[in-house]
Design goal:
- This protein has 251 residues and is α/β, with parallel strands linked by helices.
- The chain is built from 9 helices and 10 strands.
- A 6-stranded mixed beta sheet has the order 6-7-8-3-9-10, with helices on both faces.
- The longest helix is centred in the middle third of the chain and has 18 residues, at 118-135.
- The chain is globular.
- Bound molecules: adenosine-5'-triphosphate (ATP) and magnesium ion (MG).
- Adenosine-5'-triphosphate is lined by residues 14, 19, 37, 39-45, 86.
- Residues 5-248 form the ABC transporter domain.
- InterPro entries: AAA+_ATPase, ABC_AA/LPS_Transport, ABC_transporter-like_ATP-bd, ABC_transporter-like_CS, BCA_ABC_TP_C, P-loop_NTPase.
Length: 251
């Protein structure tokens, strides 16, 4: 089996500050994996390079065997990569349904033209409802997005990404700012979405219950370098990882 995503020696600096250094790894299709590491380790910057929001200074990114380094984010999305943001990207004044429907329609390149093709519009609406049901947000479909609780806004952001029918989905701190109860639910939800939508899924997360609960592979970034990569049990017992990030208490 070929990897779906390959990072090959990615370097990125801001001024004199090296934020990713020589980062290489491969992600297999259908894998669910986590990226962990201290604040400022370069996790989000790495996602930004993968999704075309930032250009690496050096190195290559291959998605489904094609070079995507230097492509614009929209082009990368069109090839089947989706993401949610650490800070959500919803349209606050639009309804919850509309937020997801817009992305379902844009996947079909028919943005905001419901009258040209009623059948397609209906299809996108059904798809949006299906996604909202999966996220437990269907009951809020008609409400403006800004009225949602923070945790639900995070889920809506994932819904927007799913509307684009990605094969590879990147989630940046899906449970940030959530209560412990919400986190538990979101952990189960992420696992379910991964299965239901046949995703290859990479998530950045600080909550180790979630990381060690659902990731098949864990990658640890420290000061922009890939410190370790492997199955959860191995990472959890890796002395370097414990020193750099985990501490003793999670063992
Ligand atoms: N556009 C930018 N210009 C300058 N420095 C930046 C920029 N973006 C990120 N940085 C710096 O790069 C480093 C890595 O940031 P990044 O956001 O990737 O960390 P992170 O691992 O996602 O951290 P967190 O867990 O807090 O989200 C930080 O020191 C940050 O201040
Ligand atoms: Mg970050």
């Amino acid at each position: 089996m070929e990897p779906v995503l390959v990072l090959d020696q990615l370097d990125k600096s801001f001024g004199g500050l090296t934020v990713t250094y020589n980062v290489s790894f491969s992600v297999m299709p259908g894998e669910i994996s986590a990226i962990i590491g201290p604040n400022g380790a370069g996790k989000t910057t790495l996602f930004n390079q993968i999704t075309g929001n930032l250009l690496p200074d050096k190195g290559r990114i291959l998605f489904k065997n094609e070079q995507i380094t230097g492509l614009r984010p929209q082009e990368i999305v069109a090839r089947g990569m989706g993401r949610s943001f650490q800070i959500t990207s919803i349209f606050p004044e639009e309804s919850v349904l509309e937020n997801v429907r817009i992305s379902c329609l844009s996947r079909r390149k028919e943005v905001l033209n419901p009258f040209r093709n009623v059948a397609r519009f209906k299809e996108a609406t059904d798809q949006a409802y299906f996604i909202l049901e999966s996220l437990g947000l269907a009951k809020h479909a008609e409400r403006p997005a800004f009225e949602l609780a923070h945790g639900d806004q995070k889920l809506l952001d994932i819904g927007i990404a799913l509307g684009l029918e990605p094969q590879l989905l990147l989630l940046d701190e899906p449970t940030a700012g959530m209560s412990p109860d919400e986190r538990q639910l979101t952990r189960d939800l992420i696992k379910r979405l991964w299965e239901e939508f046949n995703l290859t899924l990479i998530f950045i997360e600080h909550d180790m219950d979630i990381v060690f609960g659902i990731a098949q592979i864990v990658r640890v970034l420290q000061l922009g370098r890939l410190l370790a990569e492997g199955p959860p049990e191995e990472i959890r017992n890796n002395p370097e990882v414990i020193t750099a990030y985990l501490g003793e208490e999670v063992r």
